[in-house]
# Entry
Amino acid sequence: MQKLITELNESIKWKLKDIERYTKMINLVAGQDVRGIRKFIFECDTSEREMFYEYLQWGDPTLFYNVYPKASEQKGDYVTQIIFNQMKDDIKELGLMKGDDYPEDYSDLEKENCEVECGCEI
# Structure
C-alpha cells in the first residue's frame, strides 16, 4: 500500500510541474514576450520543446513568426534544430561567447524594465 501512495504522490508532483510550465507559457504568450518565449522553449526538455513550439505555431502563427522568424527557411529541419539555430542567432546578436546560453534576464519584460529604470538598451 505504501508503494501505491508513493507512486501517486510522485505522479501529483509531476502534474504540478506540468501545470507550472503550462502557466508560464500562457503568461509569456499573453504578454507577447517574444524573447521570454524563446528562452522558455529552449530551456525545456526535447519533447516539451516540440510540444510548445507546435502549440505556438498552430495557435498563434503571427507570434510564432516573431519568435522564430527564420523557421520558414528551415522547413524540413527538426524542431529542436530550428530552436537551437535561433538561440545561436540570439547569442551572436547579444555579443556573447559561443557555448553561452540565454542570459537569466532574457525577456522583453526585463528589457522594458531596464530601459525604464536606467535608460540602457539590452
User: Anything to note?
Assistant: DSSP finds six helices and no strands in the chain. Residues 113-122 have pLDDT under 50 and may be disordered. Residues 2-118 form one domain. The helical segments are 2-30, 34-43, 46-59, 61-67, 79-94, 108-118.
